[in-house]
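Lecture notes, unit on protein representations.

Consider one protein chain, 606 amino acids long.
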Amino acid sequence: MSDLPESRRTAVRRGSRARVVLWIVLALVLLLIFAVAWVGTRGLLAKRHLEQSVSLVSTLRSEITEGNTPAAQRTAKQLEDHASAARSLTGDPIWGAAQHMPFFGTNLRAVREVAVVVDDVASGAVRPVAGVIGDLNEDAFTPKGGRVDLEPLVDAQPEVARATKTLSKATNEADRIDTSATLSPVTSAVNQLRNALATVSQQADTANKVLQLAPAMLGHDGDRNYVLLFQNNAELRAGGGIPGAVALLQARDGAISLGNQAAGSSFGPYEKPVLPLSPETTSLYGDITGRYMQDVNLTPRFDVTGALAREMWKQKFGQQVDGVLAIDPVTLGYILRATGPVQLPTGDTLTSDNAAKLLLSDVYAKYPDPTAQDAFFASAASAVFEKVSSGGFDTKAFITALTDGTKDGRLRLWSANEAEQKQIAGTAVAGTLPTASAKTREFGVYLNDGTAAKMDYYLDKKVSVGSSVCRKDGRPTSVVEVTLKNTAPADAATSLPRYVTGGGDFGTEPGKIKTLVAVYAPKNGIYLGASQDGKGAALQTATDGEHPVAQIQTLLAPGQSTTFRVAFLGEAKFAKAGVQAESTPGVRQTKVEPLQFDCAEPVPVG
């Protein structure tokens, strides 16, 4: 080649370099094609594994519900295998490098993160719980020989706690997945994962708290005593109903029994509140909240109610109890679905169909003497309790009954043990004031009877809530609408027993219903205004802690109704959150409805 002219040698070198570059480019193209094929093939396989995982979750839920523990454990193992395979398929170096490609990389990264979250949940939550679920079937909660075996609950605590922690972490990781530039199918899959995790994580947290609390509170580590308040919804209190009857609930290593029983009216009146009341409680509900057992739940704060009831029990019986539990006749009706009818010493038969009517209405015509009424309430509660403590009930129906009562706000629990109370706080049985988060802003509608009688059996209630952002600063305006109606017969003044109407003894004309309604907003809200039946409303504005409160009094004759609206301004950081409301459970608890409120409507002013 040395004999070739210089120009020819230069051309040869250039040709060689061109071929080298061509081969390099070709190799890169082939490598890219291989990488795309590799990622595509593994992506399809990962997709199938993830889809199979989703299918198995549904199967697992059904098997657990049916109590088929062996099948559930096999399904949990299959789910773990599929989730692990999906994670492995999306975890190799080629997939990792492809995650940095323009456009497609964002989708691959999201798929990888989904696979990791699903695998973590399968191995760190599903498998541990499936391993102990066999000891936590429905029969485990059925008393045998008068007691519940607490050991399976204690044994399950570590695994359920581990699963709860895993699900909480997985929920946070799913929320952090970037879907701002992902394809629609990927975005949809991520959103489905988020929604599923949010629901399951919340359920697991509740189950974990139950398992952490139940054994100790049922006497596993020593005897426990609780004050049991039987709340009468025919005379409303913010926390439910007037405590007409009170009893001692004793727990000893899973065995539960009723001790002393007394009428709520037999406690007090005390010369001054048995415990110091906050200025807000006194301003809104008066110092009678701490002077009468029948008024301890005028406040919706059940932690205040519990502490007051505990102290009153101590002053009457000299006994310091460990906590307070509240229940109402409607919940007893729910429980009777599980136990079946029970016979009362009076000869009456109490059933799920007649419990509310018999205990909240018929009893007053049948037994005009208040002392006899209290004895009737006590005997009804004791009869149902004895049926439950003996194990004579359908466990699934019993759990459903307690769940329904809790959803309605009819069951309340407070513990004098600070560590236990921290676990209870924030749960559906805690009886705490409304909260606000990025997902939901809660409002409270609390009713207190002002008739001093039993007319609330005839009070119907409807609650609606809506919200819109109407201001440039992004703060949401929320409106709570409450409609009350007196459904008593037109001749209620003469046809109903005097004990039910009050007979005019407390300043209310017989047949009419006087009600104080307090509407609470979340912390740091601002009261804007209120209207009643489309006109300005006269009401009391106050605060309870950091919660703004608007309280109004209504007086309704039979057949009469009234509607009022209260508007609050919320914090901008919660503007996108949905709105919900809780309300005092009456004889009939209605679902809170959405309120269509837009910025063109005038804000209620009063």
